Amino acid sequence: MHPAPFDYLAAASVTEACVALAGDPSGTRVLAGGQSLMPLLVRRLERPRRLVDITRIAELHDLSATGEGLRIGAATTQRAAEFSPALAGFHVLAQALPRVGKVTTRNRGTICGSIAHANPAAELGVCLVALGGEVTAVSKTGFRSIAAEDFFRTPFQTALHPGELVHSVTFHRPKTESVGYFDEVTLRGAGDTPLISAAVTGSIVDGEVTDVRIVVGGAGQVPVLTDAFAAGLSFTGDAHGSGEHRRRLAVRMVARLLRRLRKGLP
């Protein structure tokens, strides 16, 4: 099967991309890595009137670390981030990136694209909520910052407004005493789409674990930060497993991650 016909624009600047998007928000899709979008186009589950390619925009290839966080532009590939020295210190993100898809998809797929796609079980959304941070959106009217915990509304739906695209995402830098662990369950092993993703972080100070953050994502359940994770989760069932099966997986996975966190105590 081939995609339905569409117009194509290789934007040379953020401004050009935003003007094109504002002209037809409902009929325009943004193309960066394309690893989430292209399968939908080929199967004609998406039929945009125009694709706006942002891969030639230099500022969207930013990948920079400061004392406050790690800033990643919308055109930066997962593979580039995976091997960047800037990733040092961002524990759950460093653990999760090598497990996103396969090398061939990470060579083209972008971090911002995965987050904007908002697959509820996807690794990078879980890491964003676990570390804390924000998504910077841009439109014809300017920039807007969206906190990580407010970005994911429902599965595959985000807080982006019509006419906005993701400009960059910032992961907050963990404290020096922070430790964190990421894990996932997939159907067919490494590289497959996860059924459940989870991350646990905490700070070890004076022999005690403090500031524990638990984040879980899976079908029907956007990445959620919670303490009483078992009671607060509401997964949905599909051909790959029931909602209750996913809940049990989440409970066991988080318990395993918490045990790893406890092993870090002196």
Automatic annotation (TrEMBL):
Source organism, top-level taxon: Bacteria
Organism of origin: Mycobacterium kyorinense
Alphabetical UniProt keywords: FAD, Flavoprotein, Oxidoreductase
Protein's UniProt name: FAD-binding PCMH-type domain-containing protein
Matching Pfam families: FAD_binding_5 (PF00941)
PANTHER family referenced in this protein's UniProt entry, alphabetically: XANTHINE DEHYDROGENASE SUBUNIT C-RELATED
Gene3D superfamilies on file: 3.30.465.10, CO dehydrogenase flavoprotein, C-terminal domain, Uridine Diphospho-n-acetylenolpyruvylglucosamine Reductase, domain 2
FAD-binding PCMH-type domain mapped to chain residues: 1-176
